[in-house]
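tl;dr need the bound structure. longer version: we got a ligand (aspartyl phosphate) that a collaborator sent over and nobodys looked at where it sits. i said id run it. heres the input, straight from their email, havent touched it
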Amino acid sequence: MKVAKFGGSSVASAEQIRKVANIIKTDPQRKFIVVSAPGKRFKDDEKITDMLIQLGEAHQRNETIDEYIYPIMKRFNEIVEELNLEGEILENIKNTIYAILERNTTVLEKLDALKAVGEDSSAKILSAYLTLSGIEATYMNPKVAGIIVSNNPGNAKILPESFDKLYELRNTDEVMVIPGFFGYTKEEKLITFSRGGSDITGSIVAAGVKASLYENFTDVDSVYSVNPTFVDNPQEITTLTYKEMRELSYAGFSVFHDEALIPAYKEEIPVCIKNTNNPDAPGTYIVSEKKPSEKCVVGIASDSGFCSIYISKYLMNREVGFGRRLFHILEDEGISFEHAPSGIDDMSVILRENGLPIEKEKRILARIQNELNPDLISIHRNLAMIMIVGEGLVRTIGVAQKATTAISNANVNIEMINQGSSEVSMMFGIKAEDLDKAVKSLYYAFFE
Ligand SMILES: Nc1ncnc2c1ncn2[C@@H]1O[C@H](COP(=O)(O)OP(=O)(O)O)[C@@H](O)[C@H]1O
Ligand SMILES: N[C@@H](CC(=O)OP(=O)(O)O)C(=O)O
């Protein structure tokens, strides 16, 4: 039996939902369906999740909310009407939104409950439409399904007891439609995963019911070897290992959430990325092992929005506990770091820029200065990271030289190189403004 997750672009309109129903119809193995909230129908369209967040923020500011609720209801109204569904669903969505706004909960809990309305409504709409189309289907709330999560609003983590509970759903005769993106704490509080988290729900359900395949339906035929916004018609990837995909999605392949691989990986459930608009295309398979290929690099991922804290102190290597004290300061300030390359007298800590707002920057620099007494400390913002990924990297000579030559041919300065800790990737830090030319040059060096 298969778990199929349909992303925001797959449920963005009535037309897309009809395609989804056909895909479910053509394969009776597709028993567990996970859906996102309606996403973008065209480039500059708005995602329902973003509209719900704006509504929540306006409510917090005590603004009138009608102008925020109206476009949300208009989107759902169009979908429900075009699919000829009962208007009762719309009433239900509207009442849910108002009930959340009136509830006496914390700001973050309220925002999470609002964000979940998108996925929850999609699941109700799709199950009603499947039933109308003659497929026995039922809406299944994540609480009833057993998706139990930690109490971290906007960043839930799955709790291990969820999987046994999900296993009990395994022998269903009906198609079960589960909203993605959220679960419930043991105290029954609704908490969402991080953005893009319906992929995580799909993987959790696949692991729980021990599916034979987790299909992730989106709007591209496959995972491409580079983000298609950088290069026209990039090469398609037919097979990736979990390790490769984890690195690539962490580093910017937004087609699949980087946290979504872990549950499927632990149960060795293959994942297939497929296109709702072209379901006959074979898609990209993510598996535990693949035949060694002649290509050592499978993908080049990149992301901007990083910054680095650079610290230099003569004889740092001899100062016992220097690194620990530095990380302790970051921990104390609630900051997680991404990478920490170091030398004899120097250390850099790479962070996501949104984790280091300007108001925190001053305090942290002062603490590092006072508590670690370095010779030099500086912060560099607007950095981008490029990750070259492939299981073949370890056994291929000359990859670093090929990559650095490609970056220098693009006339781009490398601010940082990180290789070694992960056997399947090599990372380069550059200025964000140089990202486009560096990625293009790397792509041509490795794939053309
Ligand atoms: N390497 C890549 N291969 C394919 N798609 C990619 C890649 N990197 C980024 N993307 C983007 O991911 C998008 C699909 O992910 P997403 O927008 O989350 O879809 P969904 O609406 O199905 O959740 C694609 O349209 C594409 O722009
Ligand atoms: N709707 C949520 C969760 C999600 O997974 O969406 P999508 O499938 O559109 O990436 C978000 O926008 O974050």
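gonna send this back to them w/ a short note. The mean pLDDT is 94.
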